Recover the amino acids of this structure.
């Protein structure tokens, strides 16, 4: 791909995302989206033998009926699914070598190869062609830069792994610095102070550590970044509070994974699905509460087509945003579905009641203003462990308040009360920078067959009783 073509691709996608893709009518947008999807899937059917066989004789116009895939399916059929002739063994070898050497520049026949972090138990590969790489760069910058391309920006990107995908945004006016999350925090602080970023992108666990060091006077930036963006992990309300207080501005978010650039925040800080790039079908877990699992069809990528891909994340819808966008607004990304707690029904111990992660999180946060960090883990159906970061003097009152709040929550939804343990919170558990932070986590296996189907919406009934925002988190 020539330099001129790279520039043209970049500018075309930047301009489209920044200036031209504007709809005031959802129906008009959906007609545009449908045309794009059908045209894209016709090409995928032709170029991917896996999808051609997977869809059988179903016409492309009925793409919503195509069989679902997930990470396991994608990796099992990787060689036949991708359209650029990359073999899984070769791709894994290059990606794993890059992880070991920390040299992320090598490609395979010009194709950028990335490796997911593997928090769901198995690691996934993603492929990006040169054209897709520059299209992504243009779209990403259009949605994330605080100003235009004419302004000079210094971007600090904290990630587990670097990639050609990120380096493609480098330019004369745009400086890009990769901060490896495996490096020591002290090294980050001194380098960040010298660099003076105007745009800071990092997981919330790292943003929280940087915020704590700003508050302690250990990090003194010449000027605060003009925009702070949280990526890669769920942004917990408690972490948001501390980060926003330290940086003196709202924290924006990007929802991106192996399966695509799925969502980003508007100027008001509302997270919107990037439905000009991906179509999101909603598999509702709780219709009343607006909670759903996204099924992704990415109509902007061809090297590794993502069609009717079921994620393991749990999202909650939000009301329409005042920005006027027709793109679906998201109230929260709650993390993985398998981090939903399951407790025994108080009347029938053979039945289990789901408790969504955000209800656990909001209950803990609302219980005590003394809690500065927490980690809730369900080890068994009858045992939950909650680690709280609290000043020593306030520890007994905070533990009592959180325990009472959780008991009240479980009683309201008709659960048999589990044992709730409160061991001390270790500092590294509150802000772990080398792995994805999960504030709410389930560590025992439960068979779907014993989950009560008629209690799927049990958690919805109390959603209005738990405040969606808290006085002590208001800036």
């Amino acid at each position: 791909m020539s330099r001129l073509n790279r520039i043209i691709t970049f500018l075309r996608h930047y301009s489209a995302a920044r200036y031209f893709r504007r709809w005031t009518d959802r129906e008009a947008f959906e007609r545009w989206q449908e045309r794009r999807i059908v045209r894209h899937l016709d090409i995928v059917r032709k170029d991917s033998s896996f999808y051609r066989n997977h869809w059988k004789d179903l016409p492309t116009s009925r793409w919503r009926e195509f069989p679902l895939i997930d990470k396991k399916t994608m990796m099992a059929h990787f060689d036949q699914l991708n359209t650029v002739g990359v073999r899984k063994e070769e791709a894994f070898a290059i990606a794993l070598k890059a992880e070991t050497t920390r040299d992320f520049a090598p490609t395979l026949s010009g194709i950028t190869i990335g490796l997911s972090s593997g928090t769901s138990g198995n690691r996934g590969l993603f492929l990006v062609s040169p054209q897709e790489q520059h299209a992504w760069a243009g779209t990403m910058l259009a949605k994330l830069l605080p100003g235009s391309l004419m302004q000079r920006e210094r971007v600090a990107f904290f990630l587990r792994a670097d990639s050609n995908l990120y380096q493609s945004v480098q330019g004369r006016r745009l400086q890009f610095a990769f901060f490896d999350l495996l490096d020591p925090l002290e090294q980050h602080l001194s380098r960040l102070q010298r660099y003076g970023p105007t745009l800071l992108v990092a997981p919330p666990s790292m943003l929280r550590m940087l915020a704590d060091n700003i508050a302690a006077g250990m990090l003194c930036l010449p000027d605060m970044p003009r925009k702070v963006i949280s990526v890669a992990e769920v942004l917990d309300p408690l972490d948001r509070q501390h980060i926003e207080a330290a940086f003196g501005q709202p924290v924006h978010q990007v929802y991106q994974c192996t399966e695509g650039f799925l969502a980003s925040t508007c100027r008001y800080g509302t997270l919107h699905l990037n439905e000009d790039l991906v179509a999101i079908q909603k598999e509702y877990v709780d219709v009343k509460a607006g909670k759903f699992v996204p099924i992704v069809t990415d109509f902007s990528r061809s090297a590794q087509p993502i069609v009717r891909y079921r994620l393991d994340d749990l999202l909650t819808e939000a009301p329409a945003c005042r920005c006027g966008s027709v793109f679906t607004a998201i109230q929260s990304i709650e993390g993985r579905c398998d981090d939903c707690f399951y407790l025994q029904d108080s009347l029938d111990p053979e039945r289990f009641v789901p408790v969504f992660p955000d209800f656990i999180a909001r209950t803990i946060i609302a219980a005590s203003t003394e809690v500065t960090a927490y980690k809730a883990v369900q080890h068994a159906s009858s045992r939950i462990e909650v680690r709280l970061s609290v000043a020593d003097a306030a520890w007994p009152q905070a533990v009592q308040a959180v325990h009472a709040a959780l008991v009240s929550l479980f009683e309201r939804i008709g659960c048999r009360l589990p044992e709730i343990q409160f061991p001390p919170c270790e500092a590294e558990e509150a802000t772990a920078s080398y792995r994805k932070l999960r504030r709410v986590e389930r560590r025992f296996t439960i068979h779907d067959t014993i989950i009560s189907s008629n209690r799927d919406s049990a958690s919805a009934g109390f959603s209005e009783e738990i405040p969606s925002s808290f006085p002590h988190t208001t800036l």
The CA atoms of residues 213 and 219 lie 5 Å apart. Residues 340-473 form a domain with the GMP Synthetase; Chain A, domain 3 fold (CATH 3.30.300.30).
